[in-house]
Amino acid sequence: MLTNQKHITFWNGEKMPIVGLGTWQSSREEIETAVNAALEAGYRHIDAAYNYLNEDVIGEVLQRWIEAGKVKREELFIVTKLPMIGNRPEDVEKFLKKSLVALRLDYIDLYLIHAPVGLIGKHDTDVFPHDDQGFAMIDMKTNLVNLWKSMENQVDAGLVKSIGISNFNEEQISRIINNARIKPANVQVELHVQFQQKSLREFCQKHELTICAYAPLGSPGRNDFYSKLGLKPPVAIPDLFHHPVVVKIAEKHKKSSTQILLRYLIELGVTVIPKSVNPERIHANFQVFDFSLSVVDMAQLGQLDQGEAGFTFDFSTFFKGMDKHPENPYPNRVKGIVL
Q1: So what's the pLDDT on residue 17?
Q2: What is the rounded CA–CA span in Å between residue 23 and residue 47?
Q3: Is 69 helix (H, G, I), strand (E, B) or coil?
Q4: Could you give the residue numbers annotated as active site?
Q5: Which residues contact 273 (CB under 8 A, 6 or more apart)?
Q6: More exposed terminus of the chain, fewer Cβ within 10 Å: N or C?
Q7: Residue 115: strand, helix, or coil
Q8: Confidence category of residue 101, pLDDT binned at 50, 70, 90
Q9: Running DSSP on this structure, what letter comes out for residue 272?
Q10: At CA 49, angle to CA 130 and CA 187, rounded to 5?
Q11: Cα separation of 128 and 233, whole Å?
């Protein structure tokens, strides 16, 4: 377990701040406020993605802070991701350079393959392409090993310091490791108190891979996300904040439920990237280094794990036909690809 350690260290020696700001579901107006608030609160790790279509706003904020002398580039840890429409070896450099231009950076600290499934976009901002019948425009020829080799080339070129993967299963990760010249540094997946990914955590520890948890609070904002799409949530979004075990531990430490949920994952050695656009909550999410959970606390929170039943990022409704892709990472969950 970790105590007050504020970074995790990759196999290559690079250090990743253990708390970062998630930026999914953030409008262009919201993200400017959020990134400013995060940097003011002490965050130096920002998790972005080409798919989110807001990298340019993040870049504007970063540039202002750097030019004003409020932060140095080397103090920042910026993550972004290859979009699914770029899951071809010949497209990796193109999309990486687009992200670099948008973020106004010379290099990325960690570049991830956002998901193992490839899509065919009509243009470079058609990040979630669908046909007239509502089916995802799937690229059935996705070759993860060849794609990884192109990711390695970006390290060689000095455009990224570390590379990793997101939403891959253990078999896919093993395939990458067994064929890699440069090993993945980080795996980003859904992970929270009701979906603790014990098998994956053990697997990653064995292979010296670090883990970053998206939706560490259960991503309650997804209810609004689905509503805006005119969709009903395919699974119930968990209310982790009001779980009696979490509430009791929070009262004991005089902390919020949010801080307990984040602290639990941190003590497991997992990086967390809670998403918020509210400056007060962004600040509160960073106040997790002045206390520790007891062995009893950790055991009680560990018992909240629901195993596979805790998996919630089901996008099969939005990405119809994704289950037919040979690289669908979760064929046994009967649920779609995750973001």
Answers
A1: 98
A2: 6
A3: coil
A4: 52
A5: 19, 20, 21, 22, 45, 47, 212, 213, 214, 216
A6: N
A7: coil
A8: very high
A9: E
A10: 105
A11: 18
